[in-house]
Amino acid sequence: MSDTESTTATDSTLEAKPPGPSGIPIVGSTLSIARDPLGFAETVREYGDVVAYEAFGTEFVAVFDPEIVEQVLVSRSDAFHKGEFETEFGELVASEGVAFTEGERWRRQRTLLQTSFTPDRIQSYADEVVAETARLADGWADGEVVDLRETLSTFTLRVLTRTLFDLTIDDDRAETVRRATRAISSSADPSGFALRSILPSWVPMRSEREYERAMADLSALVSELVADRRAASETGDDLLSLLATAEYPDGTRMSPETVRDQLVTFLFAGHETSATALTFACWLLAGDSSVRSRLDCELETVLEDRDPTFADLSDLTFTEAIVSEAMRLYPPVVGLYREPLETITLGGYRIPAGTTVQLSTYGIHRDGQWWDDPEAFRPTRWLEERDRPEYAYFPFGGGPRHCLGMRFATMELKLALATLARRLEFDRVTASLSPSVGVTLDPGRLEMRVRKRS
Ligand code: HEM
Fold first, then answer.
1. pLDDT of amino acid 204
2. What PROSITE patterns is this protein classified in (predicted)?
3. Pocket residue to mutate for ligand 1, from 261, 403, 441, most atoms within 8 A of Cβ
4. Which atom of ligand 1 is nearest to the CA of 409?
5. Which residues pair with 22 in a beta bridge?
6. Model confidence pLDDT, tens digit, residues 120-147
7. Which amino acid residue places its CA nearest to atom 13 of ligand 1?
8. Which residue(s) pair with 340 in the sheet?
């Protein structure tokens, strides 16, 4: 029987459980993950391409093989659902949001939401991205030291709220949104998850109380916004108006709670992800003068003396290579999670229903089998021909549930990087990176000195 066929638990040809670390009894690998998730992933990698371990009271199987990633996300995606690990987080964040629903409910939502991410819509957001980036860069003084991760996090939130929700960020409403996204980020900290899986569930955690307050305020705000949009004589074409006024084929509308969950989903999925990708890209660029010179050369040739527009995107090939290389080394989403609906074989191993399959984006992106000198920042590799499996690189996932904001994010990252680089250079003040894993791969506090270009 081949690896690509599913099997049932009674099938006598089933292979063995994948190899893996035994962990400390009861607590399993939970504490090791909480202390150092990326280090733990490296340790696990030594056992092979498919590795079993136990953590958070759950059986995990980590996958480091691009062919198996393709099977799980694309060719055998019907045999998997997001599963308990993701759903638990989804329930905390936005159980009705498109990133966490399943089956027909998910399909209906995805079809509706896709209309805000067509190439025409993405094009209409591009000028706003450039204007917002220019405002950011022009607001800095020459020589100023900025916390890049913090600043870019505010920046991508502004971009999202202006483009998708047609809200400006400078008022109390924006602060409510920002507090909620912060609360979501801290709720997903793996050390928080680890504590939660060890402590009894009746022990309230500080971040949970903050979270509940922040989410209650956000719910109230969204109900207000939905009511405003429904009462308006003319509806805008932003995502929030679409969500507030759209009708499903049976004539029903989304409840304010579902609209809230979609909005939270987009904030959660599209804010820190883009911010961390741009932060890592700027930091890597600041450390490599030859990459910087080549970027300057591209910007001078393509843009001469003006800001980029949507029409320039296809010519900004080296800018794109920098973004791709930054997301290869530091994928904002370090791993994807799925659960087989029934017992299945993957890579010749038996994976029981209920196991959490973890597709290791971080591990595969740094695997020497597919990437020469894998730890090096080398954007030119994206301009060279090299045969490698499609899922050796999957920062946006793949298959039917691939990132809905992928085109938006790629446009945003390229235009923002080009707009910043035209105006300034960064010097590293924080000398080295020590990223941690939260909702996204978090670079942490990262100070950079701004040098304005004359
Ligand atoms: C660099 C930036 C980004 C990265 C690396 C990223 C990555 C991802 C990944 C890996 C997934 C798939 C998760 C899975 O299969 O379990 C995903 C899903 C999703 N992303 Fe993104 N994302 C980014 C930006 C955005 C933006 C800007 C938006 C919205 C404006 C967005 C909206 C979504 C949504 C709604 C989903 C769920 C799709 C579904 O389940 O049907 N993302 N993203």
1. 45
2. CYTOCHROME_P450 (PS00086)
3. 403
4. 27
5. none
6. 989 999 999 999 999 999 999 999 999 9
7. 397
8. 80
